[in-house]
Design goal:
- This protein is α/β, with parallel strands linked by helices.
- The chain has a single domain, classed as Metallo-beta-lactamase, Chain A.
- The protein is 22% helix and 22% strand.
- The protein has a six-stranded mixed sheet with strand order 4-5-6-7-8-9. Strands 1-2-3 form a three-stranded parallel sheet, with helices on one face.
- A hairpin with an 8-residue loop joins strand 5 and strand 6.
- It is globular.
- It starts with 10 loop residues before the first strand and ends in a 7-residue tail after the last helix.
- It holds the Pfam family Lactamase_B.
- InterPro entries: Metallo-B-lactamas, Mito_Persulfide_Diox, POD-like_MBL-fold, RibonucZ/Hydroxyglut_hydro.
- GO terms for molecular function: metal ion binding; sulfur dioxygenase activity.
- This is Metallo-beta-lactamase domain-containing protein.
- Keywords: Metal-binding.
Length: 195
Amino acid sequence: VLDDLELNLKYALNTHVHADHITGSGKLKLANKGCQSVLGKKGNEEAKADMYVDEGELIKVGNTIELEPRHTPGHTQGCYSFVCSVAGDDTKLVFTGDTILIRGCGRTDFQGGSSESLYNSVKTKLFTLPDNTKLFSAHDYKGHTMSTIGEEKVHNPRLTKSLDEFKDIMENLNLAYPKKIDVSLPANKLCGLQD
């Protein structure tokens, strides 16, 4: 597709160091000369990337697209969401990783996760975006590909609760430990497979 559109892939953004699968950043770099892996600075001190970003440091793509990193810890300490603005278009996009899933959120029981931090990240860094902001999460287990901030404010069964109710839900999920964590985590600290 990149070749068909005569585009070059400049960045492979990682919203966080994943535990359940190996990121494709390494393979994207191998297939696209000059492509850089990107991670947020905070909470990812043990991970290796070509470029680290933090709040206030815009990532520019061409002359029309800007990505604004927002540190949204909770699922992991190093979670970042990326708010995308396109010149001439008032509608924003946000890539939330596992911080917000469509009608859910990422687990908070490993990698320095914190239910309270996740809740506060959502309320102060994401739910402050305009309601029509299009939301794209890292996973969806029900076939949904997009939501909006406004929809999640009203319909997300976890994030519409009070902090205490949210913490109770998260502490009682009783999820199995990720099967591939022992392989995925070390590989993802290098931003994926490098060969």
